[in-house]
Amino acid sequence: MNSLSDWLREVSPTFRWDWAHLVYIQERLEAQARGDVANLMVLCPPQHGKSELVTVRYPVWRLELDPRLRVIVSAYNQTYVDKLARKIRRIAIARGKFRFASDRNAASEWELVDGGGLLAVGIGGG
């Protein structure tokens, strides 16, 4: 398995992923991906990189590891989660490693030919 930290530096070289709190979160996310951690909640103050790391980039990394994985992303409203979902999809497309299903490719709900994909839902949404 490629490390999340190496992958992050490759995908987003202009971001600083080496802050202590982000390194700690990366370690926990890798443990979750290995199956060592069943449930994980990440709580940080606003503007500390939590959404960019956990919500936007982590799903793409996980889908690269297993394109059959089905990811659900949620946020406090549909408008915000749609914004995050568009970022996720842009990164996934830029990676060039996915085969997207042609019949389901909205920003907030897309599938991969391998069976995985992403569903983005705001609180109170479908």
How would you describe the overall organization of this protein?
The protein is an alpha+beta fold. The chain contains four helices and four strands; from the N terminus they run αααβαβββ. The protein has helices at residues 4-11, 20-34, 50-65, 78-95, and strands at residues 70-75, 100-106, 109-112, 117-122. A four-stranded mixed sheet has the order 1-4-3-2, covered by helices on one side. Helix 2 packs parallel to helix 3 (50-65) and helix 3 (50-65) crosses helix 4 (78-95). The radius of gyration is 14 Å and the shape is globular. The model has no long low-confidence stretch (mean pLDDT 93).
Low-pLDDT segments: none
Quick one: overall form?
globular
Provide the succession of SSEs: HHHEHEEE
- Structural class of the secondary elements? alpha+beta
Number of helices: 4
Helix content: 40-55%
Percent of residues in β-strands: 15-25%
Q: Would you report the number of β strands? A: 4
- Name the assembly state: single chain
Question: Overall pLDDT, averaged?
Answer: 93
Largest sheet: 4 strands, mixed
Calculate the terminal CA-CA distance, rounded to whole Å. Answer: 34 Å
What order do the strands of the largest sheet run in, or round the barrel if closed?
1-4-3-2
Q: How many whole angstroms does the radius of gyration measure? A: 14 Å
TL;DR?
The chain is 45% helix and 18% strand. It is of the alpha+beta class and 126 residues long.
Write the layout of secondary structure elements.
Layout: H1 4-11, H2 20-34, H3 50-65, E1 70-75, H4 78-95, E2 100-106, E3 109-112, E4 117-122
Helix pairs in contact: 2-3, 3-4
